[in-house]
């Protein structure tokens, strides 16, 4: 877990930025494109008072988890995709950061009742979700998870935004032919997304519902069986399983 630093009115922001960017550069040195998102999640945990980080890309209908610093962060990223709700989704809709300082607050419980409960059960008290890109073009999110409640200081938020900025550059600078070049994480991500679409199509045909309703049924089935959306989709595709109608 990173060490929380206080605001330092007498400090030198430019020098501190150099220190932060130096730490990021050290993590990325020699990294292949496939390793960059995971390394940036790791450096976020080193530089900030958080216990986990994940990065998700905007997908068609649901965010796609790209990397995470550990099991809890990975699970919470997948949970948001499964639920179709959570801080990540608000960021993708608006392009604005979400800084949920205490998930036990009534406002968080009302806003994300299931996600907040599940996150608290995983030992997470605060979530800070930042856009990758801009309010005009948000390509994904960097989600930071803390076991302790509390707000990020202005300095810490600045550092988090620096990491998010480098993450955005790392993702947008990937070669267009990365999948053909054998980057397994890209091909695996696309294949997983295709399976979700295939399952949604099958559910639409089986139940005579639209795409939105079919995705909602798939998400509900995944949550009910403690699966990710991808796991539930693979089950539907492999076995042709029909989801029960209400």
UniProtKB/TrEMBL annotation:
InterPro entries (alphabetical): ANTAR (IPR005561), GAF (IPR003018), GAF-like_dom_sf (IPR029016), GAF_ANTAR (IPR012074)
Pfam families according to UniProt: ANTAR, GAF_2
SUPFAM superfamilies named in the record: GAF domain-like
Highest taxon, organism lineage: Bacteria
Residues annotated as domain ANTAR: 182-237
Name of the featured protein: GAF domain-containing protein
Classification of source organism: Bacteria, Bacillati, Actinomycetota, Actinomycetes, Kitasatosporales
């Amino acid at each position: 877990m990173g060490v929380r630093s206080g605001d330092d009115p007498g400090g030198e922001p430019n020098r501190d930025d150099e220190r932060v960017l130096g730490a990021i550069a050290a993590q990325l040195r020699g990294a292949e494109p496939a390793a960059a998102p995971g390394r940036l999640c790791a450096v976020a945990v080193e530089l900030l008072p958080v216990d986990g980080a994940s990065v998700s890309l905007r997908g068609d209908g649901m965010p796609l988890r790209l990397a995470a610093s550990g099991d809890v962060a990975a699970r919470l990223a997948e949970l948001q995709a499964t639920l179709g709700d959570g801080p990540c989704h608000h960021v993708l809709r608006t392009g604005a950061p979400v800084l949920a300082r205490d998930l036990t607050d009534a406002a968080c419980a009302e806003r994300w009742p299931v996600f907040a409960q599940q996150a608290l059960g995983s030992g997470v008290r605060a979530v800070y979700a930042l856009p990758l890109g801009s309010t005009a073009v948000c390509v994904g999110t960097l989600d930071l998870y803390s076991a302790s409640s509390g707000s990020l200081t202005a300095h810490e938020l600045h550092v988090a935004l620096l990491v998010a900025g480098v993450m955005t550059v790392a993702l947008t600078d990937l070669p267009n032919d990365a999948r053909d070049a054998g980057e397994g994480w890209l091909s695996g991500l696309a294949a997983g997304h295709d399976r979700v679409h295939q399952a949604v199509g099958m559910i639409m045909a089986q139940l005579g519902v639209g795409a939105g309703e079919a995705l909602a049924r798939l998400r509900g089935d995944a949550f009910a069986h403690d699966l990710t959306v991808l796991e539930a989709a693979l089950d539907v595709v492999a076995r042709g399983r029909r989801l029960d109608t209400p």
